[in-house]
């Protein structure tokens, strides 16, 4: 990679190998970019276009693909979370990391429907294993894609003591389409209300549901606006960095 090309080399002994191998010193660090990453006189902003790779952005800004690495040093979020995904990649990714089924209830499930129990829908007749719970949102996460009745179904389970349990679900959905959190009218994250029996109250019109898909989409889109070095200064900074 172009970024590592100028790193100094050293003799490095790998594991129990008897002879050291000439290796680039990847532990080297230069803070020149850090010194200017918050200095607006050196920087401008760029919005990454859909499908643009780092090298393509570098070509557009600097007429060369070789300065792509500066984007990662200037933007901590890009370095930590990666380049924003294009829509097709995002859809594949979100379904991969959220492959399960979410049953949502307003009933208090703090003492029942625990991880490891098998749940069966009385109407749909399908069954699945509980792998996680989210008590704040009244969610029971079932392993895999299981076709429970969308809403109003009573689901039952038997706990480790042999006692039958049941709840009524208000929704059954693919995990990526289930709630991640709720916001108020100003966009702040808020909790669902709870009644005296510990049952969750319906969110109502003043709370907006943000699904797992929407939450991750928002993060992905936030990665598009990045700080970049002004084109007229790029060669000076890159030369100083390599020295």
Q: What is the topology?
A:
Layout lengths: L8 E4 L8 E4 L7 H5 L6 E5 L6 H9 L6 H6 L1 H6 L5 H11 L3 E5 L12 E4 L5 E8 L4 E4 L11 E5 L5 E11 L4 E5 L5 E2 L17 E4 H11 L2 E5 L4 H9 L1
Antiparallel strand pairs: 1-2, 3-13, 4-7, 4-9, 5-6, 5-8, 6-7, 8-9, 10-11, 10-12
Please provide a written account of the structure.
It is a single chain. By secondary structure, the protein is an alpha+beta fold. Helix content is 23%, strand content 27%. It has 7 helices and 13 strands. The strands form 4 sheets. Strands 4-7-6-5-8-9 form a 6-stranded antiparallel beta barrel. The two termini are 18 Å apart.
Name the features:
243 residues, alpha+beta, six-stranded antiparallel barrel, three-stranded antiparallel β-sheet, 7 helices, 13 strands, 27% strand, elongated
Number of helices: 7
Nearest-integer average pLDDT:
90
Judged by helices, strands and strand pairing, the structural class is alpha+beta
Question: Helicity range of the residues?
Answer: 10-25%
The strands making up the biggest β-sheet line up spatially as: 4-7-6-5-8-9
Strand content: 25-35%
Report on the biggest sheet: 6 strands, antiparallel, barrel
General shape: elongated
Distance between the termini: 18 Å
Radius of gyration: 26 Å
Number of distinct beta strands? 13
Q: Catalogue the unreliable spans.
A: none
Order of helices and strands: EEHEHHHHEEEEEEEEEHEH
